[in-house]
Amino acid sequence: MQRVAFKMQLKPGFENEYKKRHDDIWPELSHALNHAGISDYSIFLDEESLTLFAVQKLSADNSAAELPQTEIVKKWWDYMADIMETNPDNSPVCIELKEMFFHE
Question: Residue span of the signal peptide, if any (predicted)?
Fold first, then answer.
């Protein structure tokens, strides 16, 4: 099992909307994440900087790298683009984070 973490940026004033949209995550997207081998996926918000911190576990045989090519993920990116910092294709600007410590 591999753990990965990354950060994204929320636009000011959209904290509640971001939470609402994720509370109502589409079943098709949830299925795609599970099918790709992603589990224990959490996103935290730093309320001072509006930085979103995400961490997830990937199975040994995961296909997470293929998710950006799926229609459901592209549709989600389009849905979220108005409240997050995004790239030209509406994917969120993600910065991978280096693991510095782990305690199980």
Answer: none
Q: Per the residue annotation, which of 22, 31, 35, 103 is the catalytic one?
A: 22
What pLDDT, in 10s, does the model give residues 29-88? 999 999 999 999 999 999 999 999 999 999 999 999 999 999 999 999 999 999 999 999
Rounded Cα–Cα distance for residues 41 and 8 (Å) = 14
Dihedral sign, CA of 74, 75, 80, 86?
Answer: positive
| Residue 102, domain member (yes or no) | no
**pLDDT, tens digit (0-9, with 9 covering 90-100), for 18-28:** 999 999 999 99
Please report, for the domain that includes residue 92, its CATH number.
3.30.70.100
Q: 83, 7 in Cβ contact below 8 A? A: no
C-alpha neighbours within 13 Å on the C-beta side of residue 30: 9
